[in-house]
Amino acid sequence: MPETPEPVLKSPSVNDSTPIGPAPGYLSPAEQWIWSEILRNSSPMQFTTGESLSLEVLCKTVYRMRNSDLQVSELITLMGLLCRFGMTPASRRGDTNE
Q1: What local confidence, expressed as pLDDT, does residue 28 receive?
Q2: Confidence band for 10, pLDDT divided at 50, 70 and 90
Q3: What angle do CA 21, 12, 87 make, to 5 degrees?
Q4: Considering the domain boundaries, does residue 62 fall inside one?
Q5: d(CA 75, CA 61)
Q6: Neighbour-count burial of 42, counting CB atoms closer than 10 A to its CB (0-12 exposed, 13-18 middle, 19+ buried)
Q7: What is the tally of structural domains in the chain?
Q8: For the segment 16-49, what is each residue's pLDDT rounded down to a tens digit?
Q9: 63 part of a folded domain
Q10: Which domain holds residue 86?
Q11: In the chain, at which residue ranges do the beta strands (DSSP E only) sit?
Q12: Is residue 7 domain-resident?
């Protein structure tokens, strides 16, 4: 019997400039709320579909920060994402030593 090929998952291009939409339905309601909160506090086009996976990680990590203790690695991930998305004072100034 021939093997069934693996499904190909289409991911957005990292250069995609399509504005990001509402949170995916597979995120928890709390994570969806955080997604909306982040977008409300962001500049237009700060997040596009190319950043959707990173935004999911950010939402999940913010949820954990608010509801339990973060491991050091999770805190590093959170700060790295916040800096990359220009969501800290230093990153908005362009400081690279954050």
Answers
A1: 97
A2: low
A3: 55
A4: yes
A5: 8
A6: middle
A7: 1
A8: 778 899 999 999 999 999 999 999 998 888 899 9
A9: yes
A10: 29-37+50-93
A11: none
A12: no
